[in-house]
Amino acid sequence: MYQKELLPARSSYHKRAKITCFSLRSSSFSRFFRYITLISLSFLLFATYYLKQQTILQISNDTLHTSFEDINFKDTGVLKGHTYIELLHLNSTWNSTSYHDVPVTIVIIHDNKDNHIGKQLNAIASQSIKPESILIITTSENVNRILQVKKSAKNLEIHVINNNNDIKPFTYLQIIQQKAQTKYVLLLNSGAILGEQYLQNMLHISHTEEYNNSILGTMGINFNGVPNRVQDLSLTCYEDHLVSSENNVARISKDVDMLTNIWFLKRKWLPIMFKEARRDILDLPLEFLISFSLRYHVNIPSILIPTLDQHSWGDTRSKSIHCKKIRREFVNDDAWLRYIERGYPLITKEPFRRKENSILFLLEGSDQERYFRPLYCQLSLVDNNLVKIITTGENFGLSGSRLKRIIKKKGSSCGRIEVYDLDLEIQNDFNVKSQIYQNVLRMTEYLKPELLIYAKVTTKNLLMKGISSAIEGFNGDISIINLPLEEIAHIIGLMIDLPFEALKKWNEPIIQLQIITQNRPDSLSRLVNSLNSSYYFGDENIPLTVNIDRGADPVTLEYCSTFSWNHGKKTVRHRVVQGGLLPAVVESYYPYNYHDYAVLLEDDIEVSPFFYLWIKYNLLKYRYGPDKNHSQRLYGISLYGQRQMELNMLGRKPYDPESKFNGTNFPIRSPYLSQIPCSWGAIYFPEVWREFHDYLAERLDDETKYHLQSIIVPESRSYKWKKSWKKYFIELVYLRGYVMLYPNFKNFTSFSTNHAEIGTHIQFRKNKPAYSTIFGVPLMMENTIYKELPDNHLADFNQLPVTDLWGNLTSFHELIDRGITLHNKVSLCPPHFSREIDQLNFSPKDILCVDEERKRKAIRDYKAFEKSQENVPSMPKTTKV
Ligand SMILES: *[C@@H]1O[C@H](CO)[C@@H](O)[C@H](O)[C@H]1NC(C)=O
Ligand SMILES: *[C@@H]1O[C@H](CO)[C@@H](O)[C@H](O)[C@H]1NC(C)=O
Ligand SMILES: *[C@@H]1O[C@H](CO)[C@@H](O)[C@H](O)[C@H]1NC(C)=O
Ligand SMILES: *[C@@H]1O[C@H](CO)[C@@H](O)[C@H](O)[C@H]1NC(C)=O
Ligand SMILES: *[C@@H]1O[C@H](CO)[C@@H](O)[C@H](O)[C@H]1NC(C)=O
Ligand SMILES: *[C@@H]1O[C@H](CO)[C@@H](O)[C@H](O)[C@H]1NC(C)=O
Ligand SMILES: *[C@@H]1O[C@H](CO)[C@@H](O)[C@H](O)[C@H]1NC(C)=O
Ligand SMILES: *[C@@H]1O[C@H](CO)[C@@H](O)[C@H](O)[C@H]1NC(C)=O
Ligand SMILES: *[C@@H]1O[C@H](CO)[C@@H](O)[C@H](O)[C@H]1NC(C)=O
Question: What pLDDT digit, counting tens, does each position of 175-184 carry?
Fold first, then answer.
C-alpha cells in the first residue's frame, strides 16, 4: 500500500543532489555555541517569568491529557499497547502523496569513533519516502571524511555542522532547534541505521489519535527502581529486534522511561527541552534529557514502538554492548540521579491515576514543615487521598531527602507521600523569586493537584512572594487553601473528616457578619472584640456590617465609625426611623446567591474563638458534600446550645438534649436538628431567608390591613409575641418542616452566649434571677470540638436527631405532615411539594393563597379606610438608608 503511493515521490527524489557545508572555524564555533547556551539559559529564565501565562495556555491544551493516556488508560487504568500490525491499521491522518518531500529533518549525531556514517546515509537514501533535509553534527576531524562519504550519497540534501568541542547533548539540541526547519525531526545517534520503512511508519503512527502526542522510537530503557547510589543503577534495555537470548524486545507499544538511539518528535517540542533553567541540565545524558523534559513539562510520554522485520528496525549494529554503554555513561555522571531524587517524575514511577484525591502541599523551609506535619501525615492516612509535597530545597532549609527521612521516621502515623524537591539555587533576589515562580507553576501543572495547601504568612520573604504570585495565576481547577501556621492544629480534625468533595469547596461559602445595635456600646465592643480575636483560618473575605438603629448614643456612633476590622470589608448603616428589632434583623441580610450566608448577631452576644470553625465545618459538611442532597430543609446553624424551651404554652422550661437522647440510638452528645430559630448567634442560609422575606412582607400586610389569613402554629406560645421576627419565622418553619442545626457539647458549651442585658426585649426584673444566669452558657475557649463530637466527627445528615419546636424527638416525616396539615387549613392552594416529590422551591406563594374575590374586596376596603384616615399616620413605615 505504501509502496504504491510512494513511487512518484521516489523518482523525483533522485533528480536533485545538493550538498551544503557550514564551515565555521572550529574554535570560534564552539565558543559561539557555548555563548548561545548561556544566553539562552538566562533568557529563558526571564522569558518564562514574564510570558508564563502564554506558555501555560499554549501547552495546556496539548497536555492536560495526552491522547495516548486518554485512550490507552481509559477506565482500566492499565496500559493497553498495540502490536506492530495493529499500529499500522490504526486510523491515521497521514497521507504521503500530498507531499513531495516529507516535512522531516533527519539529524545524525556523529561521534569520532563511529564509521557507520556511510551506511547511515545509504539507509536514509533508501527510505520509502524522502525527508526534506538531513543534518549531520560532527567534529572537525571528521568533516572531510563525511564530505567524502556524502559524495556517494548524491541525491540527498545534507547539511554538515561542525561542532568541535562542545559535545553536550543540550548543545546538540540547540543546534537542531536552530537548523531544522521542518515540522518533524528524526534524531539518530551515532551508528543508528534505519530500516527502509522506518520514516514512513513513524509518520503514520504519529498521525494517529493514540500516538499524536508522543515521542516515538524503537529502542528504550527503563530504570528498575531508583538506585540509592549511582553504582547500584540497574537498567532494562529494550532493543528493536532479537539478537541474543538475553535482550528484551517489546511486542506491543509501551511507555518507557527513556528512548535510545532514535527519536521521532515534533520540532516545536525542542524548546521545551531548554526550559529547565538549571546549570546541571548541561550534564544530563541525551536520552534522559529528551524523555524527562517532555514528560515533565508537557506530559508527553516516550513510547516504544514494536518492529516486525528489518524494514521496520532502526538499528543493525551489534546490540550486546549497547545497554552496558549507556549504563557506563549514566554511572560516570550522576546529574540525572539528582533529578530523580528531587522527585522529577519519570514515566514508570508515575502510573496514571484518576480516582485519587490529589492534595499538594507547598512547604518553604523546615519551620513550615513542622507546623504542617500533623496535617499532611493525617491527610495521607485518609482513604483515597494521595498527598504530594513540594519543598524548596536544601539551600532554603528543607531538602526533599530530608523530608523523606522525616516522613519515614513517623512510621505508620504517616501514609504514602510523594516528595518533590525544587532544589532552588541561590543567586540574586530576582532570580530566586523567578525560579520559584516558574518551578511552582510547572510542577503544579505537572502534578495536577485538586487541592493545594500552603502557608499564609504575614511578612513574606522572596520565596513566599514567588509562591503567591505563581498561585494567583492558577485557574479554577485547583482549590487553594492558604492557612496561617498557628491555626493549622485546629483545622486538622475538620480536614480529615470532611468528604473531599466538600473540602474542595473551601472557598465557596461567603460568610457575612451582621451586627444589630443601638445604645449598648460596651456590649457592642465586647462582641466586636470577640469576633476580632476569632480564628478565620486564612479566610480574608469576611464582611462585617453594623446596623445602628435610630436613637443610638454618641459613644456607639463614635465606636462604630472608628473600630478597625481586618478580616474583610466593614460597613456601617444607620436608620433614621426607629424600626426596632424586626426590620433591623430581617433587613440586615438579603442574600444574592446560594453561597451568601449571614451570621446575625445582636450586640449583647459574645462569640467563641472557634465560632467560625464550627460554621465552616458544618457548612462544608452539610451544604457542599454528598449530604447536600438531603439537607434542603436545613435553614441555619446555631452557635448557641439552647438550655431553655420557650415555646411551651405553659411557659419557659429548662431543656437538656442529653436527657432526650439518653436511651435512644442517638449519642447523647450528638449535634441535633431543631425547628427553633436561634437569635443568639446563628448563621442563616440564603434560600430560606429569601423565602422568609417574601413571606414576611405578605404576612405583615395581611395582619395589619386585610385580615384574611390567620396562621397560628398549634401549641406554640409564639403567637402571643409582638414585633418579633421569630414569630413569623416559626410559622414558616412549621409549615415547611425546616430545621436548624444545634451544638450539643458538655455543660452547654457553645460558640456564642447571650449576656441578656437590658434592651429591647429584656427588662429589668426586681427580685428575680438575672436573665444571664438563665440563658448564659460557657463559651468554647479551648478547641474540644473533635474530641467531644461522637466518634470525633460530624454525623451524616440522615443520622442526626430531629426535634420539634418543643424539643421533643421526632422525624422529618412527622414534621412535614404537621406542616401540611396546617397548610391545608390556612391556604387555598396545596403545598408545592409532596411526600413523593419532596423538592422545595423556596417560594411562599402556595402558603399565601386566599379567595381572590375576598382579597380584592379587602384591598378596596382598606384603601377606603386609608383615605378616610388621611391625616392620621397609620403603621410606622420602615425606611432604610
Ligand atoms: C485551548 O482550548 C480552549 C477550549 O478548549 C480554547 O478556547 C483555547 O483557544 C485553546 N488554546 C490554545 C492555545 O489552543
Ligand atoms: C477509522 O475512520 C473511519 C472513517 O473516518 C471510521 O469509520 C472508523 O470507525 C475508524 N476506525 C477506528 C478503529 O477508529
Ligand atoms: C492524499 O492526498 C492526495 C493529494 O492531496 C489526495 O488526492 C488523496 O485523495 C489523499 N488520500 C487520502 C486517503 O486521503
Ligand atoms: C491528536 O488527536 C486528537 C484526537 O483525535 C485530536 O483532537 C488532536 O487534534 C490531535 N492533535 C494533533 C496535534 O494532531
Ligand atoms: C483586631 O485585631 C487587630 C490585631 O490583631 C488590631 O489591629 C485591631 O485593632 C483589632 N480590632 C478591634 C476592633 O479590636
Ligand atoms: C444529588 O442531587 C443531584 C441533583 O438533584 C443529582 O444529580 C445527584 O445524582 C444526587 N446525588 C446523590 C448521591 O443522590
Ligand atoms: C441515662 O439514663 C439512665 C437512666 O434512665 C441514667 O441512669 C443515666 O445516668 C443517664 N445518663 C446520662 C448521661 O444522663
Ligand atoms: C458549666 O457552665 C457554668 C456556666 O453556665 C459554669 O458556671 C460551670 O462552672 C460549668 N461547669 C463545668 C463543670 O464546667
Ligand atoms: C413533648 O413530649 C412531652 C413528653 O415527653 C409531652 O408531654 C408533650 O406533649 C410533647 N409535646 C408535643 C408538642 O408533642
Answer: 899 999 999 9
pLDDT digits (tens, 9 = 90+) for 26-47: 344 445 445 544 444 444 444 4
pLDDT tens readout for residues 825-847: 999 999 999 877 889 999 999 99
Nearest-CA residue for atom 1 of ligand 6: 629
Report helix angle 117-125 to 140-152, nearest 10. 40
Ligand 5 binding site (Cβ under 6 Å of any ligand atom) = 528-529, 532, 563-564, 566
Distance from C-alpha of 478 to C-alpha of 452, rounded to nearest angstrom: 7
- Using CA atoms, how far apart are residues 277 and 45, in angstroms rounded to an integer? 6
Pick the atom of ligand 1 nearest to 60's CA. Answer: 1
SS3 332: helix
* Architecture per CATH, 510-844: Alpha-Beta Complex (3.90)
**How many CB atoms sit inside 10 A of residue 383's CB?**
8
Could you tell me which CATH number the domain at 84-341 has? 3.90.550.10
Long-range CB pairs of 707-712, under 8 A, 24+ apart, other chains included:
707/858, 708/850, 708/851, 708/854, 708/855, 708/858, 709/826, 709/827, 709/848, 709/850, 710/826, 711/735, 711/822, 711/826, 711/847
Going by alpha carbons, the residue nearest to atom 3 of ligand 3 is 98
Ligand 6 centroid to residue 629 C-alpha, Å: 6
pTM beyond 0.85, yes or no: no
All three cell numbers of 76: 482500566
Mind listing the pLDDT tens digit for each residue in 322-370? Answer: 778 888 888 888 888 888 878 776 544 444 455 689 999 999 999 999 9
Q: Give the residue from 829, 857, 853 showing the smallest Cα distance to 843.
A: 829
